[in-house]
Amino acid sequence: MGNVIASAVVSLDGFVADTEDNIGPLFDWYYNGPVEVYGSDPGRPFQVSPASAEYIESTWPKVRSCIIGRRLFDITNGWDGVPAVGEHVFVVTHEPPSDWPFPDAPFTFVNGIEEAVAQAKAYAGDADVTITGGNLTGQALAAGLVDEIAYSLVPALLGTGRRFFGDYVGPTVLLDNPRVVEGNRVTHLHYRVIR
């Protein structure tokens, strides 16, 4: 069985976006290097540093399914029906869209984080599942569903916004020492949750 990984790009003060859902400088590192890498969409290249490319190439290919919230789905329009990473996206929502123009895309709409993790893990088999940072991450941590945390830390302070762990309320969670990869304008911190 693969791992469930809470993952996002985060400001130094812990935000994945500002209060208007703008990412500001958080994704600049995706376009500041000489190495071209891809997620699942061959039409969406990234240009990253060699260190970030090595990190991405050691993690993204292991992901088969992703879990996102309805907010991210709406902001990105579900990446026009092509998962950013992996083969299938599970969207946690109480109201699936009725007019999305990509009905045959590999997206499943699920009610609740526990059900989303169960379906995503079943789909992924021995591969990994990612949960995008925000309230879903906090909910998954509180439910004990997260195996690893992939925290790409950007040297910027947003001051306010949407937190990586949302409004996490739960038990203390301890992590192993991180794998640390220094990229250009990003530090990748990859932790294992101690059980």
Task: Write structural notes for this entry.
The protein is an alpha/beta fold. It has a single domain, classed as Dihydrofolate Reductase, subunit A (3-Layer(aba) Sandwich). Helices cover 19% and strands 30% of the residues. It is built from four helices and twelve strands, in the order ββββαβαββαβαββββ. An eight-stranded mixed sheet has the order 7-6-5-8-1-9-12-11, sandwiched between helices. Strands 2-10 form a two-stranded antiparallel ribbon. It is globular, with a radius of gyration of 16 Å. Residues 113-168 form the Bacterial bifunctional deaminase-reductase C-terminal domain. It comes from Kribbella shirazensis. This is Dihydrofolate reductase. Pfam families: RibD_C (PF01872).
What's the total number of strands?
Answer: 12
* Main β sheet profile: 8 strands, mixed
Over the alpha carbons, how many angstroms does the gyration radius reach?
16 Å
Shape: globular
GO molecular function: 5-amino-6-(5-phosphoribosylamino)uracil reductase activity
Protein name: Dihydrofolate reductase
Pfam families: RibD_C (PF01872)
Domain Bacterial bifunctional deaminase-reductase C-terminal: 113-168
